[in-house]
Amino acid sequence: MSVPTDLGPIAISYKRHLPFGDNAGIKDRQGKHINLTYHEGRYLSPFQPQYFEYSRNAEIRPDDILVCGYGKTGCHWVWETLNMIQKGKGQYSDLGKAAAFLEFCSPELYNSLPSPRILNTHNPFDWLPEKVRTYKNKIIFTTRNPKDVAVSLYNHQINLPEIYNYDGEFADWFELFLDGKVDCGEYTSYHLEWLQALQENPDHPILIIRYEECIQDFPGHIRKIADFIESPLTEEQLKEIAEAINFKAMKKHFEAMPMSKLIRKGQVGDWRNWLTSDQSAELDKRSEKLKGTIFEPQFEV
């Protein structure tokens, strides 16, 4: 598949043959446009409907591992951690997560990755390739409280103009987040959908990783992930990976790369610097639907 040369540096880097774009026609309350894909009743990242179809029909191998979850919930940290566990050392991937991001890059990229692959998607469970259910590929699902997700997702979008073409204010963008007119749709609905998938597929191996708990105990969660994928680590390996993957080290590693602006603070509670009391209360209200479930938000550490 040939790659046009006029799509922009990010699209070209990941061998896309279509540009990032918009078919949703969404604007914030000030009339500022934001690129999004609207496909089969869902608001999605502006990667084009065809790329979501590629992701749903991706060729899955029995030993693939999938990292899933709503955007900005720690998928990148888990993806890099998995790579280090497989290598048995604190070494970052040469290609980076985007080359394994099913709905983002060209299929030829993730099809060329050696096994065992670590694939990433923000798609709902029902949109995962059919072979994922057949093979019962291991899934690691990341989750994070919606207030910090909102802040991180807003910064993600305004720092990627080539993709989102958006420069609105947080207060105006926040209404879109509440309405689900952002990459993964409405936060609570997304998690309720995954909760239903967990209940309907109790024999599918899925590990839930909470962002807030990772911040408290990186080594413990590295060990938990290693045990889940049946890749044991020595104490020396665990220590090396924990030192390489903590947020400060991760930010330093990526500081000279284009994606450095997407790695912000790695904190729990930064939402207090952004949300008004009314905005916070609204997310508290919406989170009530997740109370008592495995996805009940944790706003404190």
UniProtKB/TrEMBL annotation:
Species this chain originates from: Plakobranchus ocellatus
Alphabetical UniProt keywords: Transferase
Classification via Pfam families: Sulfotransfer_1
Protein name: Sulfotransferase 1c2a-like
Family stated for the protein in its record: Belongs to the sulfotransferase 1 family.
A GO molecular-function descriptor: sulfotransferase activity
Domain Sulfotransferase as annotated: residue spans: 62-289
